[in-house]
Structure formats: C-alpha cells, structure tokens
Amino acid sequence: MKRILFVLFVISAANYMHAQDTTFVFKATNESDSLAKGIVYIEDERTDALLKELRTYEVQGDIVIMDGYKIQIYFSNDRKLAEEQRMKFIRLFPQLESFIEYDAPNYTVKVGSFRTMEEAEDFRRLITQDFPMSIIQKTKIKMPLDKGNRQ
Fold first, then answer.
1. Confidence band of 121 (pLDDT split at 50, 70, 90)
2. CB proximity list for 41: less than 8 A, separation 6 or greater
3. Which terminus of the chain is less hemmed in, N or C, by CB atoms within 10 Å?
4. Are 71 and 111 in contact (CB under 8 A)?
C-alpha cells in the first residue's frame, strides 16, 4: 500500500515540476560560427533586466557612483562654525575631500568617501579626538573608475 501511494505521489508531483521556462533568446554574433565550434549561448530574456536592477553602481565617464559611506563631522545651523570645522579638518587631513551640505536650516560637514563600513569606522576612530561628534552615514559616493577593471 505504501508503494502504491509513493508511486502515485511521484507521478502527480512530476506534473507540477518544470526545469526551466521556455522563453529563451539565442545571443551570438554569428550563429553558424558558434554552433560549428560547439558553443551555444542561451540566456533568459529576464537576465539583463535583473542584472540592471541589482546593479549598485553607475558609471559616468571616468567616475563610478556607488553605495558607500561618508563621515559627518559637524552639524549646526551656523554656517561660519561649519566652515571653521571644515577648515580644521583640511588642516589635519589635506588629502581627503570635505564639503559642507546645506539642508535648511542646517549645515553639515561631511568628509571622505569610503567603500566599506570598516574603512569608514577605522577613519572615524582616527578623528574622534578632534571631532568627537562624528558619525558614519551611508550614501552614494564618487570614485575614480579603475581602467583595468572597466565593465
């Protein structure tokens, strides 16, 4: 009796199983060449759309805009104090970018462009003595495009 139920289960389950969707696109520059070499490239039409949706960066010329982190070192509604804090940072770390953002009525001083939270946290620890109120913020950052890994 168990065998009969098992066989019925397998037969009914086989009706609902599908290995692939049947919508495929053949992508090759020259179909006869790729078939002659034994290479057939078949890709689901939805692959490009999914990859575009999952991409977390955008290339604009020689710049890549990607998810990353900046450190906010100062927050105030006084522009002059914000400029003083930025100048203090520039004196201490002239090689790193810094800028003031205005979001009415407040000014924020943000510094650096870090790819990972760990990089940002390491730098935040370094500047904590001079900027004790610094916090890490996730944002879009601009990085130079690595020509060797251009995609």
1. very high
2. 26, 27, 28, 34
3. N
4. yes
Contact between 114 and 70 under an 8 Å Cβ cutoff? The reply is yes
Q: Is the pLDDT of residue 76 over 90?
A: yes
Task: State the first-to-last Cα distance of the chain, in angstroms, to the nearest integer.
Answer: 60
Distance CA 141, CA 117 (A): 13
- Nearest-angstrom CA–CA distance, 145 and 151: 10
Q: Which domains does the chain have, with CATH numbers?
A: 24-55 (no CATH), 63-145 (3.30.70.1070)
Q: Maximum CA pair distance of the chain? A: 86
| Phi, psi for 120 (deg, rounded to 5) | -65, -40
Q: Which residue has the tokens 């960066």?
A: 57
Rounded-to-integer distance, Cα 136 and Cα 119, Å: 10
CA 72/CA 98 separation, integer angstroms: 10
Q: Tell me the pLDDT tens digit for each residue of 44-68.
A: 778 777 777 666 777 778 888 888 9
Q: What is the CA radius of gyration of the chain?
A: 27
Q: Name 141's bridge partners.
A: 66
